[in-house]
Amino acid sequence: xxxxxxxxxxxxxxxxxxxxxxxxxxxxxxxxxxxxxxxxxxxxxxxxxxxxxxxxxxxxxxxxxxxxxxxxxxxxxxxxxxxxxxxxxxxxxxxxxxxxxxxxxxxxxxxxxxxxxxxxxxxxxxxxxxxxxxxxxxxxxxxxxxxxxxxxxxxxxxxxxxxxxxxxxxxxxxxxxxxxxxxxxxxxxxxxxxxxxxxxxxxxxxxxxxxxxxxxxxxxxxxxxxxxxxxxxxxxxxxxxxxxxxxxxxxxxxxxx
Length: 257
Ligand SMILES: [Zn+2]
Fold this sequence. Notes:
By secondary structure, this protein is α/β, with parallel strands linked by helices.
């Protein structure tokens, strides 16, 4: 067992606003523990509409990498759904400090008591939810506190590089992951946007050498370039399997073993 399902693959404002792709989060099962990463707009709906439907009551935790809307819109409703409408106190939320406190917290105070606990991401710390060890990796994404994550369970080690600009120490933080998922918003490098471009994503893949790399969270320029073709070209060039995620795509432990 062990699988990752991409409920949505949209990144950045325009693809999300026009719903050119769904903007729901990513559902992960490792060591029999189910986790949800970045519940963007439409996550609850997509959980119930995919076949087979995913059951929020089976979630053990929600991981919010940062508070931007395309990652956080459904965080409150997913907390409530995980806690059986607030009837039970269950599940863990892991999130950056500024998603919880400060001027613009995105996690409503009234849903917080539904959670068994809230963990604030700190680089260098490790958190355990069910059978999964979670290590946050600090990213550089404008003014908003952002963390990628490395998840370790019985089926291996999975790395998620989320919204960030490239920085030299980024690839080495993901050393040893078997599945590497990278939010690849831009086709070409743009110094003014704190997001990864395809050439930077591939530089990370080349350095980390995972068994499988998955590109997701696409902006307009990536969509126009046909992500599946760009991924195929990258696989040939790097000699490492690279795939572009589709809405609803599932990868399984055998794919990264
Ligand atoms: Zn962002």
